[in-house]
Amino acid sequence: MKWTxxxxxxxxxxxxxxxxxxxxxRGDFSRVILATNPKELxxxxxxxxxxxxxxxxxxxxxxxxxxxxxVYEEFSLDSRVSVIRKLSSDAVGGYDNGFFxxxxxxxxxxxxxxxxxxxAWWEKVKSGGYLCGHxxxxxxPSYDWIEVAAVVDAWARIKGLLVHSTEDYSVGASWAxxxx
Length: 180
Fold this sequence. Notes:
Helix content is 31%, strand content 21%. The protein is α/β, with parallel strands linked by helices. It has a single domain, classed as Rossmann fold. Helix 5 packs across helix 6. The protein starts with 5 loop residues before the first helix and ends with a strand.
């Protein structure tokens, strides 16, 4: 599988499916996912300032309450959409294993953050579904705290799984792993 953009990726894997986006911020990619007409879309984000190594993420210093309000007002009236305001590590326990067809992770990009998310959300993806995410490459060396590609590659190697990626490296490529 080779996709040019993350939009191409979700257009192929999300229609009619149960999806989650982990890390929503202002809902820009949520709109793209929703345009594919998923059966359900669970939008999960903390929308709160986080300390530690994640504090280097520029969105962590934005007006997160405003970002939440934008998402809530735009998406909460759509019966297919659930807006969940929790850390991903707290939200994951609310779902049964194998619940999702597609989980797209674009949250805490640090080594610890992406490791926790991959291990936690992998179990929530059903066989034949996809665990995906954003920022598989670093477009800007000033974002040296982004460890997504290293973690995803190491995890997939250990599991014996193939990582598929989009070709839109200038905006931070996306990755996808098919669950056997």
